[in-house]
Design a protein that fits this description.
467 residues, alpha/beta, Rossmann fold, N-(1-d-carboxylethyl)-l-norvaline Dehydrogenase, domain 2, Single alpha-helices involved in coiled-coils or other helix-helix interfaces, 3 domains, two-stranded antiparallel ribbon, 19 helices, 9 strands, 8% strand
Length: 467
């Protein structure tokens, strides 16, 4: 086979197949490789009339690519990525490019880049967000790694990415594993936002007794206003879907045990390594873990009772829930983007936060109207350590603070769990406190462990014999 294809994809599941069809729609020829003949054939079937081809032969796949070869992997993270790389390596030439488009842990990306660089092969880890539909019609793409290698694939990625006002939702983010790291934090923020929406739903349904029709109307209205976002949009639609196996609405028939693939946990773990507080994201991870304890939760409900209806003016609480969601959304983005800011310094990524906010505005799961405000904040101050320090954002939080306090208070009084909302409010209260009670913690540490402390009135390290 002659070298005719511009782009190669390894892994022809739904994501890989949709991505390669997207590439073909934008004037580039592409070949896909999968060990499953049915998946290779599915690409041929769906790509009829397009410059695409599926194959199960890695030799045929590599031989068909134009040099320098551009090969993207969309396979499960972990050992499968290493296995694919090792299988392709003997067939590649120096100067070829391998792109890992999966949710790989950033430390693995660093290891692979070092390994392949020594062999003269370019390597990039890129985050791709938007689900299967985004892969097909325009995802947000987060590339990091070899800057010169990015130029080999930039025209393709810019063509297939989502667009906001004609601006592609892709940009080179920085060195090393920056692309995978940005995607990891994106997913951590996603965990937080989904948890917050679920808590708002619980307060509205259990607390106020809203029907699914009323919930749809409310979320659909919010999606035309300042909460406009992909997650609010799909939530509104979920409340309209009937179950095909019963006479109920589908959302009411789904078991309340949420699964996870690990990226939210990675975000929390690495935030702790960096010493960056992300309590809303932490709580979202913990609640997915707690949701798995279904049998224990049912026993506890029988033992302690369950939540009560919220006794309040409905219209006032509906307004307060909207304020609480907006407030906590901002705080969750602020936590994640503060982590990105610190990680970029710690790992020498060189990530531009305005660029991150810009490419998240379209295509990705956490796309939202408020990201334009975040982009403006970083444009005004590229060294902004935390979005909460932007005066425009602060002015809005001061207004919505009333709503989230009302909602959290009502939830606590009625026994409805709202850990994400509570964590967001607590983070805000702690962050804006010029003095925290941790002086007592330092005194305790010095008392029992001679760990020393610093003073407010003079420099130096001190220790006291307390007893």
């Amino acid at each position: 086979m002659s070298q005719q294809f511009d782009f190669g994809m390894v892994g022809l599941g739904v994501m890989g197949r949709n991505f390669i069809l997207n590439v073909a729609d934008h004037g580039f020829s592409a070949i896909g490789l999968d060990t499953d003949l049915a998946k290779a054939n599915a690409l041929d079937d769906e790509g009829q009339g397009k410059p695409v081809q599926g194959t199960t032969s890695k030799e045929e796949f590599i031989a068909a690519l134009k040099k320098p070869r551009r090969v993207m992997l969309l396979v499960p993270a972990g050992n499968p990525v290493d296995a694919v790389i090792d299988s392709l390596l003997p067939l590649l030439d120096k100067g070829d490019l391998i792109i890992d488009g999966g949710n790989s842990f950033f430390a693995d990306t660093n290891r692979r880049e070092t390994y392949l660089s020594a062999k003269g092969i370019h390597f990039m880890g890129i985050g791709v967000s938007g689900g299967s539909n985004g892969a097909r019609f325009g995802p947000s793409i987060m590339p990091g790694g070899d800057a010169s290698a990015y130029e080999l694939v930039r025209p393709i990625l810019e063509a297939v990415s989502a667009k906001v006002n004609g601006d592609p939702c892709v940009a080179y983010l920085g060195a090393g594993s920056s692309g995978n790291y940005v995607k990891m934090v994106h997913n951590g923020i996603e965990y937080g936002l989904m948890q917050l929406i679920s808590e708002a739903y619980d307060i509205l349904k259990r607390g106020l007794g809203l029907s699914n029709v009323e919930l749809h109307t409310l979320f659909a209205k919010w999606n035309t206003e300042r909460l406009r976002s992909f997650l609010i949009e799909i939530t509104a639609h979920i409340f309209t879907v009937n179950d095909t196996l019963s006479d109920q609405m589908l959302v009411d028939m789904i078991l309340d045990q949420a699964k996870q693939k690990g990226t939210g946990k990675w975000t929390s773990q690495n935030a702790m390594d960096l010493g960056v507080p992300v309590p809303t994201i932490d709580m979202a991870v913990s609640l997915r873990e707690l949701s798995a304890l279904k049998s224990e939760r049912l026993q506890a409900e029988a033992l302690y009772g369950t939540a009560q209806k919220i006794e309040t003016d409905q219209s006032e609480l509906l307004e307060a829930v909207e304020q609480a969601l907006y407030f906590s959304f901002i705080v969750t983005y602020a936590q994640g983007m503060a982590q990105l800011t610190d990680a970029s310094k710690e790992y020498n990524y060189g990530v531009n936060m305005e660029t991150v906010a810009r490419i998240w505005r379209g295509g990705c799961i956490i796309r939202a109207a408020m990201l334009e405000d975040f982009r403006n904040a970083y444009h005004k101050n590229p060294d902004l350590p935390n979005l909460l320090l932007d005066e425009t954002i602060a002015a809005q939080l001061k207004i919505d603070e009333v709503g989230i306090r009302k909602v959290v208070g009502a939830a606590i009084k009625s026994g409805i769990p709202a850990p994400g909302l509570s964590a967001s409010l607590t983070y805000f209260d702690a962050y804006r406190s010029g003095r925290l009670p941790l002086n007592l913690v330092q005194a305790q540490r010095d008392y029992f462990g001679s760990h020393t402390y610093e003073r407010t009135d003079r420099a130096g390290i001190f220790h006291t014999e307390w007893d």
